[in-house]
Description:
Layout: E1 2-10, E2 18-27, E3 30-38, H1 47-53, H2 57-60, H3 66-77, E4 81-84, H4 88-99, E5 108-111, H5 112-119, H6 130-136, H7 146-164, H8 168-174
Parallel strand pairs: 1-4, 4-5
Antiparallel strand pairs: 1-2, 2-3
Amino acid sequence: MNLTAIDVETANPDLASICQIGIVTFKDGAIADHWQSLVNPEDYFDDLNVSIHGIDERAVRRAPKFSEVCEVVARHLQTNVVASHSAFDRVAVVRVHEKYRLKQPNWRWLDTTRVVRRAWPEFAQQGQGLKNVAESLRIDFQHHDAQEDARVAGEILVRAIQVTGIGLSAWLDLV
């Protein structure tokens, strides 16, 4: 089972304002690689967003723009299923590609919140947030750090596969 999990943090309510990207690759259910970068969103930072993740203008002043890291991101994500915890990250990636007029990636996305709803009955109706699910599964992490959030999304998916016996390709069809 090979998959790559991604998470992004944004500078403001505009989902194209990615200011951090984290990617964690899993091979046979174990972490095989990881990558993270701050990103200069070329946009303003909203106080609410900064209060969530702690990234501000000073932190990204010398960071690359998304257009400068998109090839690295694509290399990490090109051959795997791309998992994210909710549609937020997928939509942000689409929007940032539009912002910089980049070719849209053709990745196979899997929303781990949808997997969680089916894998664990206690999350069928509510409570599928990353922090809540991680606490329930006893996965420690630093929330709202893109690489950490990506790692946890991937670990949740690996556990769902183990607990249910439903393979990755079947999850793609199911959700």
